[in-house]
Design a protein that fits this description.
This protein is an alpha/beta fold and 434 residues long. It has three domains: 29-106 and 126-232, Rossmann fold, CATH 3.40.50.1980; 238-380, Nitrogenase molybdenum iron protein domain (Rossmann fold, 3-Layer(aba) Sandwich), CATH 3.40.50; 398-434, no CATH class. The chain has helices spanning 13-21, 29-45, 47-57, 72-80, 84-102, 141-154, 172-181, 191-200, 217-226, 251-262, 277-291, 297-307, 316-326, 338-341, 359-364, 400-416, 420-427, and strands at residues 4-7, 69-70, 109-112, 118-125, 128-132, 158-162, 185-187, 210-212, 231-232, 240-245, 269-274, 309-312, 330-334, 350-353, 390-397. The chain has a six-stranded parallel beta sheet, sandwiched between helices. It has a six-stranded mixed beta sheet with strand order 2-7-6-5-8-9, sandwiched between helices. The model has no long low-confidence stretch (mean pLDDT 96).
């Protein structure tokens, strides 16, 4: 395998880094056209359109959309039917994720000024949320936990899950996760038609306020198009990991951590920064040694060859600077004093600190959310959390005394903007008007 190797002392380092991070995020026009037509059809024909596309794309033969809904008893049976180790792992992960997200709850607040004016903020939850979960063999129960639990902690009244079941294949772990999380309704539909059903509502599928969860290119395109009609979490790019290591960690560990993202797909990105050239050599050797036994060897090889890199830095301070520029989805600090070093990090989706903290723990059971900003968007966005399922309303109750002061200020500014009705509305409350 030929993984890229370069140093910050190279004259062309900046251009090399820019080329490494380059990712074409432009929408495929052909996908966009297909998605636009599907969404329009679902909006116009409702159940009939969703059923038609589902039977066609998922090779099913359902007679109605109601027949594609999974009742709570079946979800419960899926949970009870799991091998005991899987059920315990699922419930343990759910409890850890729930405990972490309960600490994110925003609460209403207010204060009263000396003249009796009350100002504040009222926090309320979204009424109904749609959760998209990939289905079939590529099914991820961890995605159910990470999206459903913060919604429920936030107080979302109804959570509607959609999950495709190609050839009628239902993933029992996904259904069990829905049971553990308290998902209210589950429909065996997927693709752009499922996004459309959630966004516009049909005779059977209720309209939601926000759609969250991962999906393929068609799902991503559909989420882009319905944004504004409903809210969405994000349109995520390929998975990423950046490891900063001082050269003192077992190179096999680091190689496997790089694999953990590379195995997602060929476009995933895995990068290692270290000031120790000899350590980079050892990691390169570990990569060659370990990849041969990986079931997803071909995907890992393509990912590391095309988008991976081993980069030598002058020192760890420079590594922090480069990390802040990259703004990675996952950042591992495999260092002696990771907590202190983390203070130098401004931009990262999640920071994994210490030699024993592999990124995979965050994917499943550490507690924090694994839905993270990608493609350098950690510069301005955050992990999915309870706050994504809550909204804020400003509270303003001006006292009669306060209106005498604020009314004059507002009127003066309104006249300056040429908005006379605004000004007079404020002046009407003044006890002494000119």
């Amino acid at each position: 395998m030929k993984i890229r190797r370069f140093s910050t002392t190279d004259g062309d380092f900046k251009s090399n880094l820019k080329d490494l991070l380059a990712f074409e995020t432009a929408q495929d026009d052909s996908i966009d056209v297909v998605v636009a037509n599907i969404l329009k059809d679902v909006k116009n024909r409702g159940d009939a359109a969703v059923l038609e596309y589902t039977n066609r794309f998922d090779k099913t033969s359902a007679a109605s959309l109601q027949a594609l809904e999974i009742g709570k008893p079946e979800l419960t049976m899926a949970l009870l039917g799991l091998p005991s180790d899987q059920r315990v792992a699922l419930e343990t992960a759910a409890e850890r994720v729930r405990s972490y997200h309960e600490k994110q709850l925003m609460r209403s607040w207010s204060y009263t000024e000396a003249d009796g004016t009350l100002l504040g903020q009222q926090v309320t939850s979204l009424d109904r949320v749609g959760l998209y979960v990939p289905g079939g063999k590529a099914a991820y129960p961890s995605s159910v936990l990470m999206n459903a639990i913060p919604a429920k902690v936030a107080g979302v009244q109804e959570l509607i899950m959609v999950v495709p079941t190609p050839n009628g294949e239902k993933n029992q772990l996904v259904l069990a996760a829905a049971a553990v999380c308290g998902v209210d309704r589950v429909f065996c539909i997927g693709g752009a038609q499922a996004v459309g059903a959630l966004a516009y509502g049909t005779e059977t599928v209720p309209q939601v306020d926000k759609i969250v969860g991962p999906g393929n290119a068609y799902v991503a395109a559909a989420k882009r198009r319905v944004f504004g009609v409903v809210g969405i979490d994000m349109v995520a790019g390929p998975s990423e990991i950046l490891v900063i290591c001082d050269g003192m960690t077992d190179p096999d560990w680091i190689a496997m951590d790089l694999f953990s993202q590379a195995e997602h797909d060929e476009l995933a990105q895995s990068i290692l920064l270290s000031p120790d050239a000899a350590f980079l050599d050892k990691v390169a050797a570990s990569i060659e040694k370990l990849v041969a036994d990986m079931p997803r060897k071909d995907i890992i090889t393509t990912s590391l060859t095309n988008r991976g890199a081993l980069i030598q830095v002058r020192d760890l301070d420079e590594a922090a600077e480069i990390s802040n520029y990259i703004a990675p989805e996952h950042l591992e600090l495999s260092l002696e004093e990771p907590l202190a070093f983390s203070e130098k990090i401004k931009h990262a989706g999640a920071i994994f600190m210490g030699r024993d903290t592999c990124e995979a723990l965050g994917d499943y059971c550490a507690g924090p959310n694994h839905v993270l900003p990608t493609s350098r968007t950690a510069r301005f966005s955050s992990p999915l959390g309870v706050y994504d399922f809550q909204k804020r309303s400003s509270l303003i109750m001006v006292s009669a005394e306060g209106a005498q002061v604020l009314g004059k200020v507002a009127a003066t500014l309104a006249y300056g903007e040429g908005l006379q009705a605004h000004a007079r509305s404020a002046e009407y409350r003044l006890k002494t008007r000119n």
